[in-house]
Amino acid sequence: RHNLESIVVMNNDATMNEGAGKFNGMTREEARKQVVAELKELGLLEKIDDHDHAVGHCSRCNTIIEPMVSKQWFVDMKPLAEPALKVVKDHEVEFVPERFTKTYVNWLENIRDWTISRQLWWGHRIPAWYCDDCGETIVSREDITECPHCHGHVTQDPDVLDTWFSSGLWPFATMGWPEQTPELKQWYPTSVLVTGYDIIFF
Fold it and tell me: What's the pLDDT tens digit per position in 126-150?
């Protein structure tokens, strides 16, 4: 909002980097202890209290998750929300029970951009490449081996797409697409989706 520079002080392995100054190279735990010690030494530490709060942990290994500033890919959802709202308001799509219509409408009328990139090992790769020579960003349906602008070396974005992209491929993967199979003609698009209510806004 204020066009401030994003300062990252932590590496991906949770050690401090050069942005952390004299704490560079320390683990996050070591750095926190050193910061407190310095504040105390400078007479700037007013008090230390216990404070209960929720700390995010990895669902797989239970490691503490540290918030980090990083570049991500986003989709502008407003143009996509408009037709999705229209089919419900025109009663082309209905919710059962009907009370969830309000949840859906409220979500889409206050829609925010969707972060579609994930920093995971498995998934569908982001179809974007960066030229190591001229700095151009190239988005392509097909894999590329060189920059179309300067013929330089390219590196593919390391992130993968949100799992909803994989989920959206399920009917195609199970019913023979791209062939126009009898199953695909019969069952896609479907007329009923049975799911938990959190799918509306998740």
Answer: 999 999 999 999 999 999 999 999 9
Q: Are 153 and 132 in contact (CB under 8 A)?
A: yes
| Every domain of the chain and the residues it spans | 1-70
Q: How far apart are CA 195 and CA 184, in angstroms?
A: 21
Residue 170 CB-density burial (10 A; 0-12 exposed, 13-18 middle, 19+ buried): exposed
CA angle, 165 then 170 then 172, to 5°? 105
Q: Which two tokens stand for residue 92?
A: 């082309």
Report the C-alpha gap between 127 and 142 in whole angstroms.
8
pLDDT, tens only, 1-31? 899 888 899 999 999 999 999 999 999 999 9
Judge residue 15's burial from the number of C-beta atoms within 10 Å of its C-beta, 0-12 exposed, 13-18 middle, 19 or more buried.
middle
pTM of the predicted protein model = 0.79
Residue with token string 């390219």: 154
One-letter amino acid for residue 174 of the chain? T
Interatomic CA distance for residues 36 and 194, integer angstroms:
53
